[in-house]
Amino acid sequence: MKITVVGSGGWGTALALLLLENGHEVTIWSHRPEKTALLRERRENPMLPGVPLPEAMNYTSDLAGAADSGAVLMATPSYAVRETTRQLGAYLTPGTIVISASKGIEKDSSLRLSQVIEEELGGKCPVVVLSGPSHAEEVGRHIPTGVVAAADDLAMAGQVQDLFMNPRFRVYTSDDRVGTEICAAMKNVIALCAGCCDGLGCGDNTKALLMTRGMAEIARLGVALGGRKETFTGLAGMGDLIVTCCSMHSRNRRCGILIGQGKPIQVALEEIGAVVEGYYAAANARTLAQKAGVEMPISQAAYEVLYEGREVRGVVSHLMGREKRSELEESWS
Ligand SMILES: NC(=O)c1ccc[n+]([C@@H]2O[C@H](COP(=O)([O-])OP(=O)(O)OC[C@H]3O[C@@H](n4cnc5c(N)ncnc54)[C@H](O)[C@@H]3O)[C@@H](O)[C@H]2O)c1
Questions:
Q1: Can you give the residue ranges of every domain in the chain?
Q2: Whole-angstrom distance, CA of residue 241 vs CA of residue 238
Q3: Yes or no: is domain 2-175 CATH 3.40.50.300?
Q4: What pLDDT was estimated at residue 284?
Q5: Is pLDDT at 193 greater than 90 in this prediction?
Q6: Which atom of ligand 1 is nearest to the CA of 249?
Q7: Cross-strand pairs, 100
Q8: Pocket test for ligand 1, best of 15, 30, 76 (most atoms within 8 A of CB)
Q9: Distance, CA 9 to ligand 1 centroid (Å)?
Q10: Which residue has the least CA distance to atom 17 on ligand 1?
Q11: pTM value?
């Protein structure tokens, strides 16, 4: 199949390589012509160093080329999804499968990215979400990985499963797009917090507490918004949370470490040098939690540190000192 990968960061490139390996005709689109030229000349992406790009890979900075694609994979940062989809919409044939691989929530609307894509395409293309514990650096190096393809229509998710599945990349289907996307966006907030814990010198106990209660609040939000609770213990849920909170590949965690060590927020964000989705998602978590009427104390604390100048040192004792409660008292029970 002819497939256009929209977004030439680490993730778009790793998935483009996988698709090429699976026998598809793949073109990577960059929003800047200089990036297209660089990829074509160097045959390596600076965001994915040490992973050569084969001769068969195509590059463009013209979205018109996506017109006769059977599928389009969206892998830009979340803030660029609406604008890029709007431009793409003029060229896409109705029925083209659009795969959303970015992780985030739109800043002002608090919409999930598949909703943003659907809005921009006027519903003319089915949208499948691809998510799970999958660092580009590892997928690019053929390290065994498993993810979820989620769509309202399971048959459509199955088509995306067939595109990506190979002996080193397992894809499970799901019909829970809402839960999958809420997990994908919100785990980045918890990963920032996990990094802060590391930067502050907290231990493994603290991180396990943070991750488990972090997932409890993500699930509370996701279920309130219509997600299925099983999703939160699956690959897109706990699976992705584990990898993001524990790995040094995670830029959200690395950014959190810098903040925990006392670096100002903007300095930490700049030092990472790539999109830190958790920074944006913390603001969305707050808005969505308020709309859905659920409590997200960890994400709220992250918001206060990231946007309101709250001192990170006091946050752990604040969270530890919250009123006592039962672990099993959740809004969906
Ligand atoms: N890196 C990973 O391991 C990974 C894994 C799963 C999901 N994701 C998600 O995929 C998305 C992209 O992440 P990444 O790691 O590839 O990011 P990255 O920082 O490596 O690259 C981002 C890319 O987007 C491009 N870009 C920047 N502004 C743009 C704009 N206005 N319009 C179009 N393109 C623009 C940049 O040129 C760059 O090529 C994020 O939402 C991220 O959460 C990343």
A1: 2-175, 185-330
A2: 5
A3: no
A4: 95
A5: yes
A6: 3
A7: 74, 129
A8: 76
A9: 5
A10: 9
A11: 0.95
Ligand 1 midpoint to CA 192 (Å): 17
User: In terms of C-beta density within 10 A (0-12 exposed, 13-18 middle, 19 or more buried), how is residue 246 classed?
Assistant: middle
* Residue bearing the CA closest to ligand 1, atom 4: 11
Atom of ligand 1 nearest to the CA of 35: 37
- Among residues 187, 229, 291, 324, which one is catalytic? 187
Q: At what angle do helices 113-121 and 81-89 cross, to 10 degrees?
A: 30
Are 258 and 266 in contact, with CB atoms under 8 Å apart? no
Residue 331 has pLDDT above 80, yes or no: no
Residues 197-212 pLDDT 10s: 999 999 999 999 999 9
Given strand 25-29, what is the order of strands in its sheet? 58-60, 25-29, 2-6, 71-74, 97-100, 127-131, 145-150, 169-174
Superfamily of domain 185-330: N-(1-d-carboxylethyl)-l-norvaline Dehydrogenase; domain 2 (1.10.1040.10)
Place of tokens 């609406």: 82
